[in-house]
Amino acid sequence: MRTKLEGGQNMLRQAMYTTIKTLWSKGHNKSVISRLTGHSWKTVNKVIKAIKAGKSVPEKKPHPCILDPYKDQIIAWIEKDLTAVRMHEELLRQGLKVSYTSVKDQVAKTKRNNNIFMRIHSDPGEEAQVDFGYAGYTPDNNGKRRKTWIFNMRLSFSRLDYYEKVYDQRVETFILCHIHAFQYFGGVPKSVKIDNLKAAILEANFYEPVYQWQYQQFAQHYGFQSIPCRVYSPNDKGKVESGIKYVKNNFFAGRSFKDGYDVDLRLARWLERANSRIHGTTKKIPRELFEQQEKKILLNLPIEGFNLSKIGTRKVYHDCHIYVNHNYYSAPYQYVGKEVEIERGNGLVKIYFNHELIALHKELTGSGGFSTQKSHYPKHKCISETEYQEKYQVKMAAVGNFAGQMFFCIVQHKKQAWSRPIQGILSLVKKYSSDIVNRSCERALAYGAYDYQIIKRICENGSYNLPVEILEGK
After folding, report:
1. 161: which DSSP letter?
2. Nearest Cα to 203, choosing from 215, 212, 213?
3. 139 and 249 together in one domain
4. Of 33, 178, 310, 378, whose CB count within 10 A is highest?
């Protein structure tokens, strides 16, 4: 590896020497040559001195580094994702006296020059890799141009591909694409290596991934193990990233489509040609390799399909309810504003938070219905309608006898909306005395007026002082 690296550096020095020599022979001065070549004036001056002295390309003198004997060890540590800080600690522990800056520079140089990664081989049926790639704007079935992504699942052994265009990266879409890919392959690989997508993983941690509940349920149903790629380690899923690049460059690039149906039809035809080509890495045809060695190894598809309509996430509204299939179901008030998971099946609606069951309802039929459990509300909110009315009856009676009578009249005439007028009348006590409010209620009762606004005007214009008998005589 070092020989190739040194050979490349010598070629660069030869090219630099030849370029500067040519420009110098044409009469350009050192400043102009520096500007044209991008090399420093000091470097140009050094090369010209060598030219004048009749010397050939100046050899770069080797500068031994204290870390040279540890290069292989540093490469191994890089593969394990160790930081320069950890490497420095290990080297000190081994008795090497070296600065952290030297270690950091050596790590950066190694990564830059070598671009090292391990090539990972897979057995038949062992693994598939999955990713999304942005494909620009394409027309949907209504002819509207929409942002489009391409889903790719690639079997790592045979390199057999499945592609599908999608308009979002929601969990439901992600799972549905998996189902279509498994159906296309006629089976399920033992593991699916996924990118650190929001649609599949909540926390991008390679060693302790926290899967979204829906995707975990799906993986268990189909019997495969999902494996997240390490953060910033694209070579973990290099096969599928090559697939994304291939479809973008060879299918989407330079093509125009009538609508979404046209995209799907032409993509399906192109996919068959792509799977029948000789693959650049394996030098074999993916379709043939799959049929001969991999298809029979795949896990069988489950007898019962995975019903996407039974899962999902919802946000708990401020009234302690979630909206599911055109109906409303209550959840404990502690979860207001939070995202909860829902599961429907066997006539039940189950509500989960962090995979723990927090509410259970019988599924409603029709639409616009409410299934409410009073225990989901705070205790101070859980009072009966009768208790609620009694509380305001006491408050109105405290204002005066006529206010108490007004309470019963309003409840009788406004059975479904009695609370707001009562609350409005009680609020008048903040501005007027209880006596004024009570006498205003008396006058309103005489006219059969049971509206808050009328009582408010009587308080404002002082007509509560007028004799009720005289007005009644009119």
Report:
1. E
2. 212
3. yes
4. 178
DSSP run (H or E) holding 271: helix 260-274
Cα separations (Å) of 135 from 97, 165, 283, 445? 52, 9, 27, 72
327 lies in the same domain as 446: no
Domain count, the chain: 5
Reduce the DSSP state of residue 157 to 3 states and report it.
coil
Domain boundary among 381, 402, 433: 381
Strand-strand pairing, 191-194 and 201-203? unpaired
Longest dimension (CA), the chain: 131
**pLDDT digit string, tens, across residues 18-63:** 778 778 787 888 888 888 777 788 888 888 888 777 766 555 555 6
Per DSSP, 141 falls in state T
| Residue 58 domain flag | no
Determine, yes or no, domain membership for 337.
yes
Q: Which amino acid is at 260?
A: G
Instruction: Note whether 244 and 353 are same-domain residues.
Output: no
User: Is 120 within a domain?
Assistant: no
- Could you read off the pLDDT of 297-314 as tens digits, one per residue? 999 999 888 877 666 778
Distance CA 306, CA 217 (A): 9
- What six digits make up the tokens of 245? 């690049």
* Same domain? 138 vs 273: yes
Are residues 236 and 194 part of one domain?
A: yes
For residue 199, the domain's CATH number is: 3.30.420.10
For 451-461, b where at least 16 C-beta lie within 10 A, e where not — what string?
ebeebbebbee
φ and ψ of 228, to 5 deg: -80, 145
Do 142 and 271 lie in one domain? The reply is yes
Are 160 and 277 within 8 A, CB to CB? Answer: no
The answer to whether residue 160 scores a pLDDT higher than 90 is yes
**Is residue 390 in a domain?**
yes
Q: In what order do the strands lie in the sheet with 225-228?
A: 161-166, 145-155, 127-139, 191-194, 225-228
Do 348 and 450 fall into the same domain?
Answer: no
How far is 402 from 435, CA to CA, in rounded Å?
10
Bridge partners of 164, per DSSP, are: 151
Cα separation, 66 vs 105, whole angstroms: 12
Q: Which domain holds residue 100?
A: 68-114
* 148 shares a domain with 190: yes
Mean pLDDT of 73-94: 81
In order of 21, 26, 389, the CA distances from 48 in angstroms are 7, 13, 102
Inform me whether the pLDDT recorded for 229 exceeds 70: no
* One-character DSSP codes across 216-246: HHHHHHHT-EEEEPPTT-GGGGHHHHHHHHH
Which three-class secondary structure string do you get for 397-465? HHHCHHHHHHHHHHHHHCCCCCHHHHHHHHHHHHCCCHHHHHHHHHHHHHCCCCCHHHHHHHHHHCHHH
